[in-house]
Amino acid sequence: MKRILLFLGLSATVSAIAQQKDTTDLLPVEVKAIRAGAMAPFAKTNLSKKEIQKQNLGQDLPFLLNQTPSVVVNSDAGNGVGYTGIRIRGTDATRINVTINGVPFNDPESNGSFFVDLPDLVSSASNIQIQRGVGTSTNGSGSFGGTIILNTNEANKEAYAESNNSFGSFNTLKNTLRVGSGLLNNRFTADLRLSQVKSDGYIDRAKSRLQSFYFSTAYLANNTTIRFNTFSGKEKTYQAWNGVSEDDLKTRRTYNSAGTDRPGSPYENETDNYQQDHYQLFFTQKLSPRLTFNTGLFYVKGQGYYEQYKANQKYSSYGLSSLVYGGTTVSRTDLIRQLWLDNDFYGDIFSLLYSHHNTELTIGGAVTNYLGGHSGKIIWAKNGLPNDNLTWYSNDALKNDVSVYAKWQQALSSRFRFFTDLQVRNVAYDLHGFRYNPQLNIAQQYRFFNPKAGFTYSSHNWTAFASYALANKEPNRDDFEASVNEQPKPERLHDVEVGIEQKSRKASVGATFYYMKYKNQLVLTGKINDVGAYTRTNIENSYRMGVELQGGAELASWLKASANLTLSRNKVKGFREFFDDYDNGGQGTKLYNETDISFSPAITGAATVTATPLAHFTVDLLSKYVGKQYLDNTSSESRKLNPYFTEDVRLAYAIQKGVLKNADLIFQVNNVLNKKYEPNGYTYSYVSSAALVTENYYFPMAGTNWMVGLNLRF
Fold first, then answer.
1. Where are the strands (E) in 382-440, listed by range?
2. Which of 91, 208, 223, 199 has the alpha carbon at shortest distance from 148?
3. Closest to 476 (Cα-Cα) out of 93, 52, 185
4. Exposure string over 556-576, b if 16+ CB within 10 A, otherwise e
5. Cβ distance 501 to 460 under 8 Å?
6. Per-residue DSSP letters for 209-259?
7. Phi, psi dihedral angles at 170 (to 5 degrees)
8. What stretches in the chain show pLDDT beneath 70?
9. Which of 42, 135, 362, 471 supports an S-S bond with 147, CB 3.0-4.6 Å?
């Protein structure tokens, strides 16, 4: 109870203490078109470059957002390096829209965002905005609970060289080198970043070897801007996505079953390998003092595979004939396989901005195409291979996405602003088979209309807003691998947001109420599709309802405090669970009247206390609380993640001397209380010997661990 009162007493974010003047006008047009301004009637949090750099010691992007409202993060390796995940208001990454400079980043097939593909991207980010709820219209996959907007297109007027290095627990190492030309001849600029991140991970063998680069050059004139970006990431991570069983969690929390199919020691190359290259070309033209046009061409190339050692596999499962040796038929073998993805994603984003006095109008959109090639290869078999045809499946997926939006913000008076946002989006799938169902072809098209409207009222130090938004979202590729008669329906969300905030020079407090009503939300029910895989099923009615409290205060010239607290109710109505019946064959079912939505804690909160006891020296105490979460939608106490409270401590010392523009020495201890906790997991149940058996798997996080960083800027 004390923890809840602590969050209430401090209630909001540090940056909200004296909410800085809105910097939307300083943003590049491609980002400004989709970003919510200070007066937009939506719940949002902005992180500045300084706030990002302070936290950037090598952990992935989700962990840098951990202190923002309604966020829960997790990590396969247990220490925030490698594969990581994020949920906003309980909404998973497949429903969170992510853009980089306005360009869609979500994988078009799964709709997820794999930040491991672009390690250390945050070192090139100048600011990040997190929108909660549907938010404003954006480019790419539908925002269905959250939006993350990253901007890297800043113009550094002065030349610089920067070296950022950190080292810590689990042999975690991050090296970043950044250089910039500054503004040459008052027209040209170029920036380069080289990065590597290594970690052995908390979980056994959960190693990560990550590399990336970022290069940007721009021509800046009074009315014309041309910018070219290219950046790339290459990752090699040992698989840790099996989780730890409930029994193992008690005695060997770091156990990793990946690679243990091989007799003896685990297979050393049970790894995920992927490279993703990005190219962006932006052109901005100021047509008049009131009118600005922007367009951005982009191309993303991805290619990679994950490798597995599989024991006692049937040749027939891979479309291969059994082997005959001396009259003996061999139908099974140990083998090593690679599952490949070769994809191309390209398109154009565009916007036209009109601004005059009290009116701001934006017309924009995106046209994108995705080509995904899926294939499986056998590279070795213990008992040999019957022929040279080592590819056992190969199928393609195509996706076309066209969207157009119009946003209008009108100041009706000095205190009252009206906002409306209309988007039309057309999505077309053309899927040529699946791994386990190669003969299934899908041609599906969706046309969505996503309207939004709201108002903002401001007077003196008070601001209030209210908005309504309708969002629609297409199914993921895997959802279509079902019978022709049981194809998934698109999801729909009605989102109502009401907020109020009071700000003064030294304090702020705010609250946002939200109600998010879903229709046909796709969730895992335990149901098996035609090829024996667990598939997501549409649920007719479900909702999220909650209040987000935020606030902060300057308690003394040397002491600041801030916090946020989310109290929510997340429910599924009429949920039907499916479970395998090994006694009688087939599946059994159980109907629930109203249950909690999985991975949706009723309470989340974060608090930050910042002390500056000496000049240039700061101490941050970072607290995080996440309430109980259920692993599925049954609200079963035997299938849950326990609540947890963690505390981190960060010490930072900054100096400026001689040629050093800035030098920061940062020491951070995570989980100082050595809390054993698991923010993620999965479950499945079955009937055996007339009893219902439930097996839970968890992704545990590291106990007390540390990182030390030295950042030098010349």
1. 391-411, 416-432
2. 91
3. 93
4. eeeebbbbbbbbbebbbeebe
5. no
6. EEEEEEEEEEEE-SSEEEEEEEEEEEEEEE--TT-EEHHHHHH-TT---TT
7. 60, 30
8. 1-26, 388-389, 530-532
9. 135
Please compute, for residue 675, the number of CA atoms within 13 A of its CA located in the half-sphere on the CB side.
19
Tokens standing for 677? Answer: 């906790």
Ramachandran bin of 436, using left for φ above 0, alpha for ψ from -120 to 50, beta for the remaining angles? alpha
- How is residue 588 written in tokens? 């059994």
Helix count (H) and strand count (E) of the chain? 5, 37
* Tokens (6 digits) for 527: 């149901």
Q: Which amino acid is at 30?
A: E
- Token pair 């004390």: residue: 2
- How many CB atoms within 10 Å of residue 643? 16
- Residues with Cβ within 8 Å of 572's Cβ and at least 6 positions away in sequence, in order, are 521, 523, 539, 541, 542, 592, 594, 595, 596, 597, 633
Quote the tokens at residue 636: 């079963």
What letter represents residue 685's amino acid? Answer: S
- Judge whether 556 and 562 are in contact, CB under 8 Å: no
Rg, the chain, Cα only: 26
In the block, residue with structure tokens 């290219």: 230
Summarize pLDDT for 290-317 with one digit per residue, the tens: 999 999 999 999 999 999 999 999 999 9
pLDDT at 142: 82
Residue 14's pLDDT is 32
Please tell me the predicted confidence (pLDDT) of residue 6: 33
Task: Say how far apart CA 12 and CA 605 lie, in whole Å.
Answer: 9
Token couple for 334? 């140990």
pLDDT in tens, 90-138: 999 999 999 999 999 999 999 999 999 999 999 999 999 999 999 999 9
pTM over 0.70: yes
- How many Å apart are CA 320 and CA 312, to the nearest integer? 14
Q: What letter does residue 64 receive in the DSSP assignment?
A: H
User: How open is the CA angle 572-574-579, to the nearest 5 degrees?
Assistant: 95
Nearest by Cα to 153 from 298, 281, 28 = 28
Categorise residue 89: left if φ over 0, alpha if ψ from -120 to 50, beta otherwise. Answer: left
**CA gap 622, 536 in Å, rounded:** 37
